């Protein structure tokens, strides 16, 4: 049992992001082998490796869930929009002759079990994957909540949503798109991976296995469909508002004409 715990890789989506400068300062007081780059802070302690990513994911090698959750709690003060409803994934890992991920056995085969940069290449893809899983869950929830809108439009030709509700939902979509396409940056090789070309093939292997690119495209497609729907609703409300203004103008002109005629009649 202890061996299984030691040979487990746990990944968590814990927040919208981490302030890495503060995380680094906090960890550097307790750990010796702490390193910081623009989008990741990581350290090695004996056989344990921990990677904290700016986009709000944490990856652990060689820790059990209690240790991992305790660590996440300790850095929560440096998190932006932390959540208690973590997305979690786990793999077992073992040492072999070639770096691969075995889908059937849910196992990562490592060529090297001691190099922090080598594990960083895999951890980066694993962190992006668990963060995408969180976005996928949010998208499904959004679609479920908004499923009534097209049905209502099909039946009645109008919606009960107000202008400020539509604006809020469009703002939420923009933030989610920004998080996926800018913060995660899945469609490009991360800078820290690019700067260490010897580990780049391992990152791409893991990214391909985890299907990162097509998942981002699928998320963007879903978000775009929701955005198109909201834009249709916004256009409908704008048209309704314009029609109302036209009727107000017509009524005012009518009132003005009536008053003009009444004034002439009174003079007569």
TrEMBL record:
<dbReference type="InterPro" id="IPR051624">
    <property type="entry name" value="RMD1/Sad1-interacting"/>
</dbReference>
<keyword id="KW-0472">Membrane</keyword>
<keyword id="KW-1133">Transmembrane helix</keyword>
<feature type="transmembrane region" description="Helical">
    <location>
        <begin position="244"/>
        <end position="262"/>
    </location>
</feature>
<dbReference type="InterPro" id="IPR003734">
    <property type="entry name" value="DUF155"/>
</dbReference>
<dbReference type="Pfam" id="PF02582">
    <property type="entry name" value="DUF155"/>
</dbReference>
<feature type="domain" description="DUF155">
    <location>
        <begin position="50"/>
        <end position="220"/>
    </location>
</feature>
<protein>
    <submittedName>
        <fullName>Putative ACR, YagE family</fullName>
    </submittedName>
</protein>
<keyword id="KW-0812">Transmembrane</keyword>
């Amino acid at each position: 049992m202890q061996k299984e715990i030691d040979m487990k890789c746990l990944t968590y989506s814990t927040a919208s992001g981490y302030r890495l400068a503060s995380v680094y300062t906090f960890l550097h007081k307790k750990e010796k082998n702490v390193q910081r780059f623009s989008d990741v802070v990581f350290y090695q302690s004996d056989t344990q490796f921990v990677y904290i990513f700016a986009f709000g994911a944490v990856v652990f090698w060689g820790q059990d869930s209690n240790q991992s959750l305790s660590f996440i709690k300790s850095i929560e003060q440096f998190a932006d929009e932390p959540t208690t409803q973590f997305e979690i994934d786990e793999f077992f890992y073992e040492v072999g002759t070639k770096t691969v991920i075995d889908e059937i056995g849910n196992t990562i085969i490592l060529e090297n079990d001691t190099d922090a940069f080598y594990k960083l290449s895999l951890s980066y893809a694993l962190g992006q994957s668990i963060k995408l899983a969180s976005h996928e869950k949010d998208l499904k929830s959004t679609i479920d909540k908004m499923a009534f809108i097209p049905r209502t439009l099909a039946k009645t030709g109008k919606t009960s949503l107000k202008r400020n509700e539509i604006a809020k939902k469009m703002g939420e979509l923009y933030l989610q798109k920004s998080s996926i396409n800018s913060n995660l940056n899945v469609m490009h090789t991360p800078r820290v991976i690019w700067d260490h070309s010897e580990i780049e093939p391992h990152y791409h292997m893991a990214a391909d296995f985890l299907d990162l690119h097509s998942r981002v495209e699928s998320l963007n497609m879903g978000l775009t469909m929701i955005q198109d729907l909201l834009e249709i609703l916004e256009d409908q409300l704008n048209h309704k508002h314009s029609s109302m203004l036209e009727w107000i103008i017509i009524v005012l002109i009518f009132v003005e004409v009536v008053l003009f005629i009444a004034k002439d009649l009174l003079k007569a």
